[in-house]
Design goal:
Shape of chain A: globular
Number of helices of chain B: 15
Largest sheet of chain B: 8 strands, antiparallel
Largest sheet of chain A: 7 strands, antiparallel
Number of strands of chain B: 19
Helix content of chain A: 25-40%
Radius of gyration of chain A: 23 Å
CATH topology of the largest domain in chain B: Uridine Diphospho-n-acetylenolpyruvylglucosamine Reductase, domain 3
CATH architecture of the largest domain in chain B: 2-Layer Sandwich
CATH topology of the domain at 103-221 in chain A: Uridine Diphospho-n-acetylenolpyruvylglucosamine Reductase, domain 3
Strand order of the largest sheet of chain B: 15-12-14-13-17-18-16-19
Oligomer: heterodimer
Strand content of chain B: 25-35%
Radius of gyration of chain B: 22 Å
CATH class of the domain at 103-221 in chain A: Alpha Beta
CATH class of the largest domain in chain B: Alpha Beta
Distance between the termini of chain A: 45 Å
Structural class of chain A: alpha+beta
CATH architecture of the domain at 103-221 in chain A: 2-Layer Sandwich
Shape of chain B: globular
Strand content of chain A: 15-25%
Largest interface: A-B, 88 and 82 residues
Helix content of chain B: 25-40%
Chain lengths: 481, 441
């Protein structure tokens, strides 16, 4: 069969091309290179092919084919994932869902919308903004990441403190199971469908249980009012204390973000500087929203807390433009590290809020130990840290050091009673770190669930869980030498 | 006798714990056990389950007993595992706003404890005085305030679960945001104790609202379109009601003395914001409706009474009149039709019906009283009405003999094989709450 670029020798590719059409498949090496990793760039592997189905039925046909011929496969959205969940470790057939990007329906009265998995997160809010509605989960990559990917990763974002992460907003799913069978779970958005909470298990399963082909989400009405506060501190400990005090005062901020000195240096050198003072140790970006009549009271309380914690300067955004500038500065924070370092590694630990000062101190010690700078940008309100390890991959051994430093930061979070990932997922990156928080039995309890959905383990194998008996394999290899 | 041998073995496992042989095991609601055990530690729970699982014994799980009439086709299991004595706060991190508790802790006592710290669990289940936190979560109970605060799946951040083979599994963690591994918490919430015994729960807390009030807006009979228009207008406004619950005329009469379709709109916020929202509702109040505003204490008193309207599985149920409770899920605004259909049923049949439903979340609770035959017929008629709407009917309370005549969970979903697969993986001998869940798993 002739596809553009000449004859293909792989009959599987030929057969897959019959399903999606010859213009909707990539198989030549030069085309596949763009798919050898996602937002986690340290591991790379070429897929066997990339197919671009246009409908759930096509997805089901592809999956059925892969299942029949034991071909490993995985789903991919925009490829913005930060833990390597879409990297074809086993030379998978990548099912790219970027062509399935329709907004299927919007029902404002019942506050729900149905989208295809390739639909861009922020586009949903844009589509309903004129009616005063929005979709709450707002990962920093929301301008380009897909809602299907958000479901796979159970994506979070700055405003999840008050409104919850993706799983709190998923009402229904249409799913192609790893054997090609298609199921619908509450796609009409009816709550609590009888049975175990499959929506809950599928969301955040990092593409290992099924491929979602339609998503019913909850949409929210915009808050009546919104106020944003920026506070500069000379001591990290004061900023951390202010975070605890705000929450203890009974305020549920819509967002409560923190950046340390290194992070501020980065964002000020990047595309959206806002003129933060260079010599402060930490800043807090605090947003409250809700009924206008109650907002001022909360803002006054927040200002009071900041002052009692020795804030150097604290200000309220004067208009929407100023607010947007502050947020643009924050949301592009990761990328901004490129302005002060050739490479960076993002980590994603979670700790109980009250442990902030001690964990930040440990991260500082890790940074010293490895001689690598670590910037901290994070969702302080829910204790979700993002240590950014700055390094230079051209220097021999520095990538490995950065990985080790990142892993140690996660150990620090686990030791503080926290978790190794708050919103980026485990993927490839944190497979081994799963052992920091789960016993072998607890990991087996999870893989048992995978076996129910994905018994042949053809779908996105090698992700999420540590490799059993890894030490044994290493030893065996040594013997063979 | 076999039973005595069984008993002495159990006593050896549990030592100090209570092991009690039940003399009179028959109960109209079923879900009893020949022997009741009340473990006082997680290790004891684990030992009991391991014993039962190894010896082919069936175990029924109970907390406060309020949901005894919810599901299950067994009158008497080998063992009744009661968590009533496994209670208390394990850890309360006030600054982190997280709470870890033992599963047998009564819900109300937790709320009273938390109120001293101006904190609360954002759930409003029935019979909070008796219902345990473990039971509320295992049955996924929620009330009208779910509209604003969500359900157990939005509050639970971690659990300890004892598997049927005695293994103790932790799910989630103690932090409010966590995506490490599968979100296993979700699997156990609403699983009706068919996968494991929840021994400990970690919850994310909310600040206790500084002020609250409740607006009761009653409509003239037959004006369903007006109720709908009002709900749509409020939902489309910038107000943030905590509940938007429609009460049937009979339920309204019981709670307020006024026999009329009534919408219960509650607001929880700082006082100025609550009054501001009350004023908004007054501004859009439709003609020929009556409005009553219950301030703080009266609003709380209303809700306190509200949570006792459902049948309580702790009661003997020996009266001749049959009581049933149904949970109906439909697309949000279809709750209007469901409440109306239930109300009409009362006139068409010789039964008493009280009903309420959330216009912002679509979950309805229907309480029916009558003879067994009529109650069963009413359930069937409601199912015939609800299924074409894309909804479901679950029977939350009904005597055992009648549960065997209706499908408690309705028809199996098309993906039942996944549910069955999960059950078989975790509880291969069907030791726990045998047959109490969807499709008899």
């Amino acid at each position: 069969m002739a596809i553009k670029g000449g004859q293909i020798k792989d009959t599987h590719i030929e057969n897959l091309a019959k399903i999606v059409g010859t213009s909707a498949i990539l198989y030549k090496k030069e085309d596949l290179l763009a798919y050898d990793c996602d937002g986690f760039t340290i591991h790379r592997h070429l897929p066997r092919a990339v197919v671009f189905p246009n409908s759930a039925e096509e997805v089901a046909k592809i999956v059925k084919y892969c299942h029949e011929y034991d071909l490993p496969f995985l789903a991919r959205g925009a490829g913005t994932g930060l833990s390597g969940g879409a990297i074809p470790l086993n030379g998978e057939v990548i099912i790219s869902l970027t062509k399935m990007k329709r907004l299927v329906s919007v029902d404002l009265e019942n506050r729900r919308a149905v989208v295809e998995p390739g639909f861009i997160n922020l586009k949903l809010t844009h589509s309903i903004a004129d009616k005063g509605y929005y979709y709450a989960p707002d990962p920093s990559s929301q301008y380009c990441c897909t809602i299907g990917g958000n479901v796979a990763e159970n994506a979070g974002g700055a405003h999840c403190l008050k409104y919850g992460v993706t799983t709190n907003h998923i009402l229904g799913l249409e799913v192609v199971l790893p054997n090609g069978e298609m199921i619908e779970i509450s796609t009409n958005g009816v709550l609590d469908p009888p049975g175990y909470d499959l929506l809950g298990i599928l969301t955040g399963s990092e593409g290992t249980l099924g491929i979602v082909t339609k998503i019913t989400v909850r949409i929210l009405k915009n808050p009546e009012a919104k106020q944003t506060v920026l506070a500069y501190f000379d001591k990290v400990s004061d900023a951390s204390q202010a975070v605890s005090d705000i929450i203890s005062a009974g305020i549920v901020p819509a967002a409560l973000e923190m950046m340390d000195k290194t992070a501020i240096e980065g964002v000020e050198a990047a595309a959206f500087p806002v003129g933060h003072p260079k010599d402060i140790e930490a800043l807090l970006l605090i947003e409250v929203d809700g009924i206008s009549a109650g907002i001022d009271e909360q803002i006054q309380e927040i200002l009071k807390v900041c002052r009692s914690r020795n804030v150097r300067e604290v200000k309220v955004a004067q208009d929407e433009k100023e607010r947007e500038r502050w947020w643009a500065n924050r949301k592009t924070g990761f990328g901004a590290m490129g302005a002060i370092s050739p490479d960076y590694l993002v980590q994603d630990g979670v700790i109980p809020r009250s442990k902030l000062p001690e964990v930040l101190e440990r991260i500082r010690q890790i940074s010293e130990k490895y001689g690598l700078r670590i910037a901290n940008i994070f969702h302080a309100g829910d204790g979700n840290l993002h240590p950014l390890v700055l390094f230079d991959s051209r220097k021999p051994g520095e990538t490995e050091m950065a990985l080790a430093a990142g892993s140690e930061c996660l150990q620090a979070c686990a030791d503080a009673g926290g978790s190794i990932t708050g919103e980026h997922g485990v993927g490839i990156e944190k497979r081994e770190e799963m052992r920091f928080i789960f016993s072998d039995e607890e990991i087996a309890a999870q893989t048992n669930i995978r076996d129910v959905f994905n018994p042949k383990n053809l779908l996105n194998a090698g992700k999420l869980f540590p490799t059993p008996g890894r030490c044994v394999e290493v030893k065996r290899n040594e013997k063979m030498k | 006798m076999l039973a005595t041998e069984f008993l002495s073995e159990l006593k050896a496992i549990l030592r100090d714990s209570h092991v009690q042989v039940e003399e009179d095991v028959g109960h109209p609601l079923g879900n009893s056990g020949r022997v009741t055990v009340c473990p006082q530690s997680e290790e004891e729970i684990s030992n009991v389950l391991m014993y039962a699982d190894n010896h082919g014994k069936k175990v029924t799980i109970a907390g406060g007993g309020t949901k005894r009439g919810f599901g299950g086709g067994t009158e008497v299991a080998d063992l009744l595992l009661s968590l009533a004595e496994y209670k208390g706060v394990v850890e309360h991190n006030v600054g982190d706003m997280t709470l870890t508790v033992k599963a047998g802790t009564p819900f109300q006592s937790l709320q009273e404890y938390l109120a001293e710290y101006n904190q609360t669990i954002a759930l409003d289940p029935i019979w909070p005085e008796y219902a345990t936190i473990g039971g509320v979560i295992a049955a996924n109970d929620s009330g009208p305030k779910r509209f604003r605060y969500g359900s157990a799946r939005d509050s639970v951040i971690g659990m300890r679960i004892v598997y049927p083979n005695g293994t103790i599994i932790r799910s989630g963690g103690k932090v409010v945001k966590n995506v490490a591994g599968y979100d296993m918490n979700k699997l156990f919430i609403g699983s009706m104790g068919t996968l494991g015994v929840i021994s400990e729960v970690t919850l994310k807390l909310r600040p206790l609202p500084k002020y609250e009030s409740l607006i009761l807006l009653s409509f003239q009979e037959g004006k369903m379109e007006e109720i709908r228009a009002f709900a749509v207008e409020l939902l489309d406004s910038l107000m943030e009601p905590t509940s938007l619950e429609l009460l049937s005329p009979s339920l309204s009469e019981r709670l307020t003395g006024n026999h009329a379709y009534t919408v219960a709109i509650s607001f929880e916020d700082v006082e100025s914001a609550v009054h501001y929202q009350e004023n908004f509702v007054k501004r859009i109040q439709p003609a020929k409706t009556n409005i009553t505003i219950l301030p703080l204490k009266e609003a709380r008193a209303f809700w306190k009474q509200f949570y006792t309207i459902a049948p309580n599985g702790r009661e003997s149920g020996s009266s001749n009149e049959i009581e049933a409770a149904l949970k109906i899920g439909v697309v949000n605004l279809d709750a209007l039709q469901v409440i109306k259909a239930s109300h009409i049923l009362q006139d068409a049949m010789n039964i008493a019906v009280e009903a309420h439903g959330g216009l912002g979340h679509g979950l309805c609770q229907i309480y029916i009283k009558g003879t067994g035959e009529e109650v069963v017929a009413a359930i069937e008629r409601l199912r015939q009405f609800v299924i074409p709407l894309g909804g479901y009917v679950i029977v939350k309370h009904l005597p055992l003999a009648l549960r065997q005549k209706v499908e408690v969970w309705g028809e199996k979903p098309s993906y039942f094989f996944l549910l069955e697969g999960i059950k078989t993986k975790i509880d291969p001998h069907s030791t726990l709450n045998h047959g109490r869940f969807v499709g008899g798993i």
